[in-house]
Amino acid sequence: MGKNILIITGSPRKDGNSARMAETFTEAAEARGHTVSRVDASFEKVKGCMACNRCYSDGRPCVTDDGFTGIGEMIEKADAVVLCTPVYWYTFPANIKAVIDKFYALVVGQKNTEKECALIACCEEHDMTVLDGVRVPYERTVALLKWRNVGEVLIPGVLNVGDIDGTDGCAQAAALAERF
Ligand SMILES: Cc1cc2nc3c(=O)[nH]c(=O)nc-3n(C[C@H](O)[C@H](O)[C@H](O)COP(=O)(O)O)c2cc1C
């Protein structure tokens, strides 16, 4: 049966390297009968978590009525969540990090359910350990949430728009979709 997959992207570059991988992942997932929704965190207005612990107290995921109101509801409904992001300063870019911080609401509000998940990431440097800055927090986050990590696509050595075409990143992203 087709799954409801939510892909959350972290780059502001609409035609960038991670965006290209998001597109090939989406095409492959849809070809398998899944439904893919997409949130581009760079273009959402999501404030940082205020640690007020009032998540869902008024029915919404966060009492700060920002972009996470819709995103949180999309996460709740998703069978799978895919994070697709570049590395910025050895970690997640700020906008997608703000979304991830608000995953906290799922825990406080007891709205978390079993999900599958995956990570797609890229960076300029050729050193694979640079990708640890997103891989390690991703793995620990999904372990805490008890989501099942179905796979990771980690592509180093891409800087400019189009560099991804010189790698097997898009092929790996399409292959990742086969695992859902
Ligand atoms: C603000 C900023 C910070 C970055 N920090 C890093 C970094 O710490 N390590 C790295 O290897 N690349 C870094 N990069 C390069 C991006 O990860 C790289 O260009 C990537 O391919 C961008 O993906 P995108 O095209 O999907 O946006 C940075 C880029 C920007 C704009």
Question: How would you describe this structure to a colleague?
Answer:
By secondary structure, the chain is α/β, with parallel strands linked by helices. It has one domain (4-177): Flavodoxin domain (Rossmann fold). Helices cover 34% and strands 19% of the residues. It has six helices and five strands; from the N terminus they run βαβαβααβαβα. It has helices at residues 17-31, 68-77, 94-101, 104-108, 132-145, 169-177, and strands spanning 4-9, 35-40, 80-86, 116-122, 148-155. It has a five-stranded parallel sheet, sandwiched between helices. Strand 1, helix 1 (17-31) and strand 2 (35-40) form a beta-alpha-beta unit. Helix 1 runs parallel beside helix 6 (169-177). The protein is globular and about 50 Å long. 41% of the residues are buried. The model has no long low-confidence stretch (mean pLDDT 98). The structure holds flavin mononucleotide. Residues 11, 13, 16-19, 86-90, 122-125, 130, 158-159, 161 line the site of flavin mononucleotide (FMN).
Brief summary:
With 180 residues, the chain is of the alpha/beta class.
Which small molecules are bound? flavin mononucleotide
The major sheet is characterized as:
5 strands, parallel
CATH architecture: 3-Layer(aba) Sandwich
Class from helix and strand fractions: alpha/beta
What is the number of domains?
Answer: 1
Over all CA atoms, what is the radius of gyration?
16 Å
Shape: globular
Total DSSP helices: 6
- Listing every helix as H and every strand as E from the N terminus to the C terminus, the arrangement reads EHEHEHHEHEH
What is the spatial order of strands in the main beta sheet? 2-1-3-4-5
Q: Could you report the average pLDDT, rounded to the nearest whole number? A: 98
Unreliable spans are none
| CA(first)-CA(last) distance | 10 Å
Number of strands: 5
What fold name goes in the CATH topology slot?
Rossmann fold
| Multimeric organization | single chain
Find the CATH superfamily.
Flavodoxin domain
CATH class: Alpha Beta
Beta-strand percent range:
15-25%
- Percentage of residues in helical conformation: 25-40%
